[in-house]
Amino acid sequence: MTERAVRIGDREVARIGLGTNRLSRSSRNRTFIQDAAAAGIGLIDTAHLYTSGDSETTIGQALESLPDRPIVATKGGFSPGQGRPEVLRAQIEESLRLLRVETIDLYYLHRVDPETPMEDSLGTIAEYVERGAIRHVGISEVDVDQVEQARRLVEITAVQNRYSLVERTHEDVVDHCTAEGIVFVPFFPLRGVGSRELDRIAADRGASPQQVALAWLLKRSPVMLPIPGTLSIEHLQENLGALDVELSDEEFETLG
């Protein structure tokens, strides 16, 4: 049976998250984030660069007064040169301010900087872990060797790579994270996904094709935590419904 939750540090969270790369600053979107938290979303994912800071700002405003908050992950160091310690420090400080928190739940190095040694980038993030300003560390768009290089520098809780039914470049990273107990967070898990087989299985099960595509990811690995993006509470609730779709081995193989 597919597990409905995954552990991030000492917390168990639902294995469907929310991507917020299009989240702008508005009262409507603040309400949406609050509704997402109430619906039981496991992880809200943002980044320093998303909508020029509006994503982090909106999440911070929406969650500031909630007693039971979902885990919020953010990222810094996306572009070449931004993995330098002084740049990362500035981005982390701004993320703390915009999210209105003293501790970021999960912080990713958004990209390995070709201009900066990984030791310098992750060493900077580790400083914030030691200060208690970052709880868990992740790394994004990496191969297995880079995951292991990062783990020699700091404890890595999550890896975020592009992965879906139709984007399978990182199969070996998924397998490695599964073996090592590292949460694997696929971004764009529904982009470009579609096939006759997907539609047929969805129709047979009375589910949407998107729910079946997410259910396939959940069955692929017990450490998988997809973060489909949406600005609609109806779509978010539909995504959460994937937790109730249990694919058979035959269906899984047909799609895979």
Question: Describe it for me?
Answer:
- By secondary structure, the protein is of the alpha/beta class.
- It is 42% helix and 17% strand.
- The strands form 2 sheets. The protein has a 7-stranded parallel sheet, with helices on one face. A two-stranded antiparallel sheet has the order 1-2.
- The protein is globular, with a radius of gyration of 18 Å.
- The two termini are 18 Å apart.
Provide keyphrases for this structure.
two-stranded antiparallel ribbon; alpha/beta; 9 strands; 7-stranded parallel beta sheet; 256 residues
Please summarize what this structure is.
This protein has 256 residues and is an alpha/beta fold. It is 42% helix and 17% strand.
Strand order of the largest sheet: 3-4-5-6-7-8-9
The count of DSSP E runs of length 2 or more, i.e. the number of strands, is: 9
Q: Roughly what fraction of the amino acids lie in strands?
A: 15-25%
* Integer average pLDDT: 97
The count of helical stretches stands at 10
Calculate Rg over CA atoms.
Answer: 18 Å
What class would the helix/strand composition place it in? alpha/beta
Distance between the termini: 18 Å
- Coarse morphology: globular
Given as residue ranges, the uncertain stretches (5+ residues, pLDDT < 50) are none
Would you list the SSEs in sequence order as H and E? EEEHEHEHEHEHEHEHHHH
The residue fraction in helices comes out at 40-55%
Largest sheet: 7 strands, parallel
